[in-house]
Amino acid sequence: PGRTDRTTMSPCQTVTLMSSRSSDEARDELRSSDRSSEMMRDEPSKGSQLPLLALFILSLFGVLSATLATCYMLPILQGDRALYISANYSFHHKTFANDWGTIGTDYGLAVAMFLPALHLLRSSPQSSRDLSLPAACLLLLYSLSVITGGACHHSFTTLESMNTATFRALWTVCVGSVTAAGAFLGICGSALAKVSSESPNRLFRVLIVPRWWWYLYGGALTALVAAGRFSMERPAADIFLAGITQTPPTVYTVVAMASNSWGAGTLKARLQLAVGSFLNAPLLPLYGILVRRGLPLGVVNTILHCNLLLAWGLQAMGYISFSDDVLARKIKAGKKA
Known about the structure:
- By secondary structure, the protein is mainly α.
- The protein has helices spanning 11-42, 46-77, 100-123, 129-155, 159-162, 165-197, 211-226, 235-244, 247-258, 267-278, 283-292, 297-336.
- The chain is 75% helix and 0% strand.
């Protein structure tokens, strides 16, 4: 009593039980097959990964070589070679501003970049962290660059003080922050390319550059800064050379952003990011023009810093808009679909 086995079951019950078991086994096999297919899609074979890895490594050397060649050739082509005389932190003339216009705008820029970085770290949605975190790091590096630059302009007022290990250490942080920022700028572009590739509004496909590529790119350039390879007789020229190294990640990020329509109401955010990304480009020739016209270095620095505030401010607003609204809505819509 209370036990059912095949000897007490009717033929119809036996057939029903066997059919049920067969259906369950078939469903289990189907689920197992689906899981295996997903794993094969998500984990490409080593044979398919190796050519792509080799391509990324070769492209890294190529982009680094082209960037360094541009740093060397562009001042010559512009006729500003006299402003880019190598010093390797051994200075023979003092061409370094110590006025409060330079110092004050440096410190003001530091605060202006720190506040939006704090917003990205504390208030951006969790779903858009792949963009908001590198964008915050980018703005924090901008802030670090100008606060150490302001400290140098404030503290090192003689030629003798500039030829010290302390000045070299602080100025290396100032310039190295600019080259390191290029890595996080590129990672922002990779985040935009990834979301765009998964969106139905994609206009064209952009290769998703892995994070490690950008880390190696920024790390190699920052190591050259630490070795003194970017050090010029005019320390301000170091910053312009470092700024040139942000060209590849800037172009990649803007192209990644342009690869998608991002939906209605996103034009303002796209314009902020695009204009802010390229607004610093005119500073390279403008610096030489203003110096040759005989303007005091303090006035030149103040003009350049005001341009930086506008360019970096637009970038900050663009990244906040994309992190808080555009990407959050895209990712949410993708999950619903």
